[in-house]
Write the structure tokens for this entry.
Amino acid sequence: MSKQVIKRRSRGFICVNAHPEGCRRNVAQQIAVAQKAPRDAVTANAPRNVLIIGASTGYGLASRIAAAWGYSARTLGVFFERPPDGDKTASAGYYNTAALAERAASDGLYAAHVNGDAFSDECKRRAIEIIRRNLAPVDLILYSLASPKRVHPRTGIAYASVLKPIGRAFNSRTVELDAEKVMDVTLASAAENEIADTVAVMGGEDWGMWIEALAGENLLAQGARTLAYSYIGPELTWPIYRDGTIGRAKQDLEQTARALNQMLAGKLGGSACIAVNKAVVTQASAAIPVVPLYLSLLSRVMGAKSLDEHPIEQMCRLFSDFLATGRPHAADAAGRIRLDDREMRADVQSEVAALFPQVTTENLRQITDFAGFQREFRNLFGFEIAGVDYEQAFETDVPLADSPA
């Protein structure tokens, strides 16, 4: 047992510890949203057995909660999280999953997990065994993996992704999180090997491997669907995102979606597509230059219009409007589900674009919702959660129960 008073420790966009009680309450708040979310009157198409790859934070965690507490789906979450070690706390995703598993057991919901490297063959085998015993056939697979590195399971080659523009350097503005300083930033153009490595990590190959592994074991239901999450964003982020190394990886992800859609439609009457989600505060997004400043402005503009959504609201809308109805879902010209529709409204983007060049260090908190950005970032790790006494000692050695039989 290791009860201790836990104070937040961070370096820039990295928070190096997490608070178990804050994470537990965070999960409970998301469950409450899912339970109260509106549901389509026709739910015959609601998924029953759901695999979420990248299930412990952000959109992956919200997806799992929306499926389980919104539609009583049986879920298997795959993630790679650090357990507690002596006086060191676990990662936030570990505490999130421990809280989710405990609550699911209390509420009579099946919620299994695999903590391991989702890129590895061994992790896929572990997931397949759980599915074969308890979730077969799977009717929905959600791919929400966000990792900076990947070791290829066939070759053993290690790849690392980079956040860089392609073709030329990129000059813009961002916020230095620790100093709260608005500053110019210049990012050098990516080399060809860096582009290829980013595609290897963040592209669609691993998603395809998961679907092929499940299909090869006959574990996919008739009509099985799979979605991978992506982002497009506004023009001011395109040099670093859509037209940069990440964007090249997302193009590969979309090519994989087309190939998987053809395969699933032919074999099972199923489908594969991309869901383009709204920009939200995550550890990954906080690491992308320009994005923290953009998000701080976006939150202010969308909040004033009562349009803002957190991941749980987005995923509840994904299920209620697209995945749990008996109707074909609306898609854009490329066949993508657009959950970023509110973010990309012309009035929202014109206001953000007008404010972006006006922000300085001195007026940062007046023009933007940087305080809200900071709060949401700290909430990810269980800090600054309402109702938690951060002067009190909490048990950090929280067990993550074995998956239910």
In short: The radius of gyration is 21 Å. The mean pLDDT is 93. Residues 163 and 288 are 7 Å apart (CA to CA).
